[in-house]
Amino acid sequence: LLCWCYYFEIIMHITYVWLLLYYLTNNAAANEPHSTHFGQKDDVEDVEHMKKHLHGRVDTNSIDNPEMMRFYYFNLHDLNKDNRLDGLEIIKAITHYHKDDHNVEVRVPSDDELEAVVDGIMESDDFNRDGFVDFAEFMKRSSYQQSQFSFQNMPNFGWQKRPLFISGIFMLIFLLSLVTQTAISVRLAMTNVNNFAHGSVIIITGYFGEFIDRVVFNLLAGKDIVFHFNPRFKHNKVYRNSKINGTWGKEEFDSEFPFAKGSNFSLFIVCQRTGYRVFVDYKAKFFYEHRFLVPRVDKVTVDGDKNMTKLYDLLVY
């Protein structure tokens, strides 16, 4: 009798998990994390994006020149119309994504925190060091970075169409993974990058679950990892490194760990002339010296446990 009770309990657990995953799988699309596309990888789609921002302000239908469209886009953020962007105007330009509805409470950064981010941008974009970014500097650095962001959707394995014994195998494997508590790292998001240069800014926002173990942010140049940024919650350390020609370099880490489980996060990676300045929740936390040529960066990826990391935005300017 005890044996049969034991088997019955196992069957009930498998049935429960099967129903739970069936529900989650068939509702994955409804719960897809929000993403904001701030541009695409060619001029045609870039123009279409800027038209949305300029709609109602200028006659965008008569403009088919990407350079002219960028001029109007620049002028849109030039609030006092002095043909140059100051720090406050740049702050407004790079943080307009906060207006998007993520259905979560987003902390509003302080002026000091945003000022630190803008200082990093000015260091690379303000070529004549006059404290402003004019249109020539804006175009020279391709400040409006083309990017294409895609979330990796939760796969639908079609369990409802499979024979029961096959579904049971999947459930058994899933239960074993729960027992061993093995977090499977998968590609959460990827963006293709064009014209990456000194002054480029990568903005990543999201949420870390209560049981997250690690997450990896990589800047890639072909098969090389130019900048590997790896928060590991188990060790309370953020590891930084580069992998060039298949070989890892010297790993960097320290006692600073600004991330927390069960909370939202914002990550700014500013490419400066000497290295990458990393801001966590608008506070400068890390600096990583360049080990590779900056212009060759062509992708930004995020890898981790998709059940423990939810991404809202991955933007490149």
UniProtKB/TrEMBL annotation:
Transmembrane segments: 6-24, 164-184, 196-217
CDD domains per record: GLECT (cd00070)
GO MF annotation terms: carbohydrate binding
Pfam families given in the database record: Gal-bind_lectin
Keyword Metal-binding part of the UniProt annotation: no
InterPro entries (alphabetical): ConA-like_dom_sf, EF-hand-dom_pair, EF_Hand_1_Ca_BS, Galectin_CRD, MCFD2-like
This protein's record includes keyword Signal: yes
Keywords of this entry: Calcium, Lectin, Membrane, Repeat, Signal, Transmembrane, Transmembrane helix
Domain Galectin residue range list: 188-317
Protein name: Galectin
Source organism: Trichinella patagoniensis
Name of encoding gene: MCFD2
